[in-house]
Amino acid sequence: MTLQQIYYAITISDTGSMNKAAEILYVAQPSLSGAIHDLESELGITIFHRSGRGVTLTNDGVEFLTYARQVYSQYEALRDKYGDSDRRKKKFGVSTQHYSFAVKSFVEMVKQFDTEEYEFAIRETKTKEVVEDVSTLKSEIGILYLSNFNQAAISKILKAHDLEFHKLIDCRVYAYLWKGHPLANESSVKIEKLYEYPCLTFEQGESSSFYFAEEIFSTNEYPRTIKANDRATMLNLMVGLNGYTLCSGIICEELNGGDYIAVPLDSGEDSAENGHMQIGYIVKKNQILSSMGSLYIKETEKYLQNLIKSNGASA
Fold first, then answer.
1. Helices 3-15 and 59-82: crossing angle, nearest 10°?
2. Per the count of CB atoms within 10 A, which of 99, 205, 244, 312 is most buried?
């Protein structure tokens, strides 16, 4: 087994196609197929299912790629530190729940690097995929939240994937509204008042549990709910339908504009038991962050601390 074969397998997995991978790798497709066949023969497993629609990972392939990505990531770290100046672009990725501050921090981090020398990626995605992306090293860092409700379940999942959670900030819960909403000028709002309007939530997939929800109080019975896949759509629904969502109160006006407001939630008994959020980042256990990763966390912490100072309270 060679590093080249490992890199070939990773590229095929990322593209889902032998032909696309061959184009990216500048390798003839028969040579690529032969290299993977030799790797599978050596390991005694089948890594990919082949079909007319492309390739997919087998169960053995999923397990192999998990370890292969870790091996190749460590190789890249060594090469970055001791390799020559003509190496290919360094890669850095972040996977996150739908937080504008995570994107803002990413922007500030990228500004400090030459994008001709680096390949950056940020993925606003489902909670389960945040965990999977970091577990397989598709992304170096993941951003998500824990609450009294989901902490035990999410922590168990993180442990099973050899991941660790690092807290960035403690937050209370807010209702996120557009400034023209009938409740936008309230000093605080009870959850029962919000029930008169559509509750907006990010879709997590058909098989996902309540623990993967990005919105706190996910087990509540909301009279009106609308699901969305992206942040821009959710903001449009806030304006068009007077919708709301439950959030950390961290609003990045530079990215979302100044038409939205966070009103503190007065959720009664729920507030005492579950109305608290810890937003943090996940990484592989005992992993040393890359220079991009370290700077990204630094920019995130700086943004959140500046927000606390400007508001005079926690986010």
1. 120
2. 244
